[in-house]
Design goal:
The protein is of the alpha/beta class. The longest helix is centred in the last third of the chain and has 17 residues. The N and C termini lie far apart (about 75 Å).
Amino acid sequence: MDYPVIHKPALEEMKVKPNIQDYHESQRDFSWDLLKKELDGLEGGGLNLAYEAIDRETGYGIAEAVRIIKDSATSKFDETVEVAINLDVDPKHADQMVRGAVSLPHGTGKALKVAVFAKGDKAKEAEAAGADFVGAEDLAEKIQNGETGFDRCIATPDMMAVVGKLGKILGPKGLMPNPKLGTVTQDVTNAIKAAKAGQIQFCVEKEGIVHAGVGKASFSADQLVENVAAFVDTIVKAKPSGVKGTYLKRVSLTSTMGPGIKLDVASLSG
């Protein structure tokens, strides 16, 4: 195969000048020390400003951690702020399961879509309360056909025979209605309002980790502090009776594209 000859234009003819204009000169003068200073600009070297700005051995208070998170959130989109908590529990034991729901003071900044399984007057009530999907067997059929474009699923008790057949679809997505979470209820109006207002559900994973989005980087510092405090306080109060000794092992705060900030556990566990 014959390949065409590529002719490199003269530097002055280039509309966009290359970063390296003289390769041999750049190679001769190259120094890792100079490169580190150029990338970092801090005394002592290092390659990442965000990494250098954080003391990895220090546990920060919530307010200081939020300040760092907001300063680090420089993406063009509104980053989600998340809390991750390592608990000294073994979810394989029923008496060490940690799950529940909490309504954050300032919501999550995300508009949730809610599906409701109900019939008759309860279906009309759900529609009036702002549910995005309402139905019974017809809604179940849509879900079986792949329609799961919702973030919360609520059901009246009489619909659980229908919903139960969807366990393999809804369960792995964390969407299965549960009376302990208030999503199997006759009070569909308040359940929908709670979901729309920013109520979040949590369930500890098998590694003992529970995490949740607690707001957006565009929230004020005070709003994020109050949301984080509300979530952590709920987890602390949900400590299973079967857990002895240390409960909160590690707590960290981060944003979608930001660094992870370790929080001072002693100040959180009360």
